[in-house]
Amino acid sequence: MRINLYGLGYVGCVSAACLAKEGHDVLGIDIDAIKVNLINEGKSPVIERDLNKLIQAAIQAKKLKATIDEIRPAKLSIICVGTPSNDNGSLNLLYLKNVARQIAENIRESREFHTICVRSTVLPGTIENEIIPIIEKVSRKKVKKDFGICMNPEFLREGSSVEDYYHPPFSIIGEMDKKSGNLVASLYKHIKAPLIRTEIKIAEMVKYACNSFHALKICFANEIGNISKKLGMDSYEVMNIFCEDKKLNISNSYLRPGFAFGGSCLPKDLRALLYQAKENDLEIPVINSILSSNSKQIEYAFSIIKKIGKNRVGLLGLSFKPGTDDLRESPLVELAEKLIGKGYILSIYDREVSLAKIFGSNKKYIESVIPHLSSLMKNSIDEIFKESEIVVIANNYPGLKRNISKLSKDRVVIDLARIFTPKEAKHYTYEGISW
Ligand SMILES: NC(=O)c1ccc[n+]([C@@H]2O[C@H](COP(=O)([O-])OP(=O)(O)OC[C@H]3O[C@@H](n4cnc5c(N)ncnc54)[C@H](O)[C@@H]3O)[C@@H](O)[C@H]2O)c1
Fold it and tell me: Does domain 293-432 sit in CATH 3.90.1150.10?
């Protein structure tokens, strides 16, 4: 396939050389004459293992050529230009917008459908709100009808980028039309990795979720390392054992957006670790920020309820997670107290806690620590449905979803437990906490 590829930095050079190796006819375009000349001489403009050999082979096979301005018609344009930080931290889209204008001018007179594939990292909404309007205005063409656009984020790491190109964790194509998605997907037919096709905005966001998580992992490991060192341990032994846990640590556990954590372990153990770090004059800002982030999530849930502007709230769930009657440090107790404090008329139903109120080991806790909440507890979900204008689904337990169908459609549903997807809840006025 004839491909025009814009931006011959790390991502562009690797993509261009690998696509050329697979037999595509690649024209690499860059504003930097030194890079263009080096590539045409068969040399890599960036120091990267295996890249020199690949570029040399591609130039010899006449599958790759670099240019500053001799652009030709092509079926696909790939954009790999830089998206650096501005001084205030915002994303600099200047290079991307320039290339968008250039591509739009190139396709203006063409009658062929053209596909544009963005590999540069851009914030969610950039392609739809910033790039498509430029292309439509300059080319006088319509997206999906005359041209297509995809977001195809790159996951390579400098130092192992050629290896990473062929062995990515997955390939993601964010698309608006199937035809363009299919064309970009055809570039990956040799690559043995899951291929995920989704919306453009989601593809843009996934890249930021990945990079933020990688950065978080590094800082977390460093902070655990610093504490371990200070206390005379080998941090590598600690983290190697930590990584052996593929069930809770290196897994998808806990990676579901939702309400705050609580219970008898996580808050207490975080506080103890923070105290020990302080005693040892160690700053651990990442771990230190976890409890305040958790409190913010409780405030966020409260603000969602507040903006509804209704007064009678039914809370379905009080314990810190479903399937337990444990109320110690339950963030739902905190939410309930906040609602009472602000004058809401609250009623609460929690199957497990109701049972505990009668016999469980938490009977004493309920009677002595939260008698003010205990008196608001109802014996059935139907009572909650009858009394509440807003129903807050806090814990998801078996059968709850079925029960919710009895709820009259004029009630507002606030979902902290992802019992519904927004699509499933379309008959209600519905809001999920983080979706
Ligand atoms: N470097 C990485 O490891 C990596 C990994 C994944 C994603 N990314 C993302 O990929 C994008 C590119 O990153 P990079 O490190 O390859 O950038 P880079 O800065 O190394 O290269 C960008 C290239 O674009 C060129 N350019 C600028 N304006 C141009 C124009 N109008 N026409 C043609 N070329 C133009 C520049 O001259 C430069 O050679 C960024 O959005 C980055 O965030 C980078």
Answer: no
